[in-house]
């Protein structure tokens, strides 16, 4: 039987993905950008964001010179915004500490903000042909099934077992095709549900396939109740403009423009008067809705409030027409609210 790696390489060359916009290049900038965008996000979602991003920031120097607000605005809607902030910080690090040249060694790449061991190895392999193991979510699933490794891959001991297995399968050559092939196999054939096992190039010695255990491997994350949080969001309007607040750099929606948030039992009008210095004239409760994060669910009660003409604008605030606000770096639920504003 041919080696595991040789079968993956041959399958990738025949059946893998070859037309993605970040392929057919050795440009580490584009490969790095794609790898960061693909963290916890599907390819179909990433493609239009990637294309808009490279049109605006075609190279590393352009990204390093950009204002963070512009970077976040292009990322708006893609989620996990720490990726965008880390990407921007990494571009500046490369400009300042590497003379603008993307580092070629995986160890050096892994030192960049937002880049871990697996992402660094993928960039080093695809951009520089360096031999190294990767272990993203798709690859974990392939290896857990093929090697019959039980346990949730998020557990340290299980993850270390998967790393050892990933390193043991590395080919001596064609690391680019092998690396892409492992990612493609998990995305196209060894899927979470209904895997296409008959089409898999390594099914003959796959423990999950031969033992009919594909439904149980890899072991799912232990289930626990998702915490829930309730907030008021204030849509403060003055002469056709909406007030947005800059979020703190750390935490949910860090660095984005958002709406003032209050606890559900707070007095919105009193908050406007006492904390913000605005005079409310009228307010209206809009329909409630929910937004789910990885670790909790947020229930939002929007309050639309018309204000008397303002006298001040505090630091960290901006006033924009709703149509202009949609071009800013907004969290997804805030964008949804702004898009539905009816000022008639």
Q: What does this molecule look like?
A:
The protein is of the alpha+beta class and about 350 residues long. Helices cover about 40% and strands about 15% of the residues. Strands 1, 2, 3, 4, 5, 6, 7 and 8 form an 8-stranded mixed sheet that branches. Strand 1 and strand 2 form a beta hairpin. Helix 2 packs antiparallel against helix 8 and helix 9 crosses helix 10. The termini are far apart. The mean pLDDT is about 95.
Q: Tell me the Rg in angstroms.
A: 24 Å
Q: Tell me how many strands there are.
A: 8
Structural class: alpha+beta
Percent helix among the residues?
40-55%
- Give the SSE string: HHHHHHHHHHHHEEEEHEEEEHH
Record the SSE blueprint.
Elements: H1 4-15, H2 28-37, H3 43-56, H4 60-65, H5 68-75, H6 82-97, H7 106-109, H8 117-128, H9 137-147, H10 156-168, H11 175-188, H12 207-210, E1 228-238, E2 241-246, E3 257-258, E4 261-262, H13 268-276, E5 280-285, E6 289-292, E7 297-307, E8 317-320, H14 322-325, H15 332-339
């Amino acid at each position: 039987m041919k080696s595991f790696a040789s079968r993956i390489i041959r399958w990738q060359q025949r059946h893998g993905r070859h037309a993605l916009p970040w392929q057919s290049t050795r440009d580490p900038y584009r490969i790095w950008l794609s790898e960061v965008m693909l963290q916890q996000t599907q390819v179909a979602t990433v493609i239009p964001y990637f294309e808009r991003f490279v049109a605006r920031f075609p190279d590393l120097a352009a990204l390093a010179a950009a204002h963070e607000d512009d970077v976040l605005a292009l990322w708006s809607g893609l989620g996990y915004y720490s990726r965008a902030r880390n990407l921007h910080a990494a571009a500046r690090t490369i400009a300042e500490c590497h003379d603008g040249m993307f580092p070629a060694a995986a160890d050096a790449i892994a030192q960049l903000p937002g880049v871990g061991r697996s992402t660094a190895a993928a960039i080093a392999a695809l951009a520089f042909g360096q031999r190294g193991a990767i272990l993203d979510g798709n690859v974990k699933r392939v290896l857990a099934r093929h090697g019959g490794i039980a346990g949730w891959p998020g557990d340290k001991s299980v993850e270390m077992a998967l790393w050892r297995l990933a390193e043991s399968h590395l080919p001596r050559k064609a690391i680019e095709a092998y690396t892409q092939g492992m990612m493609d196999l998990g995305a196209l054939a060894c899927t979470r549900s209904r895997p296409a096992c008959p089409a898999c190039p390594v099914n003959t010695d796959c423990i999950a396939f031969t033992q009919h255990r594909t439904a149980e491997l890899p072991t799912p994350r232990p289930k626990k109740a998702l915490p829930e949080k309730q907030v008021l969001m204030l849509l403060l309007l003055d002469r056709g403009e909406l007030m947005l607040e800059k979020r703190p750099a750390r935490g949910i929606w860090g660095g984005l423009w958002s709406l003032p948030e209050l606890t559900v039992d707070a007095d919105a009008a009193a908050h406007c008067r006492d904390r913000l210095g605005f005079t409310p004239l009228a307010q209206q409760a809009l329909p409630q809705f929910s937004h789910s994060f990885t670790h909790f669910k947020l229930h939002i009660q929007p309050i639309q409030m018309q204000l008397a003409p303002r006298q001040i604008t505090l630091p960290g605030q901006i006033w924009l027409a709703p149509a202009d606000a949609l071009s800013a770096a907004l969290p997804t639920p805030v964008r949804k609210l702004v898009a539905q504003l009816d000022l008639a």
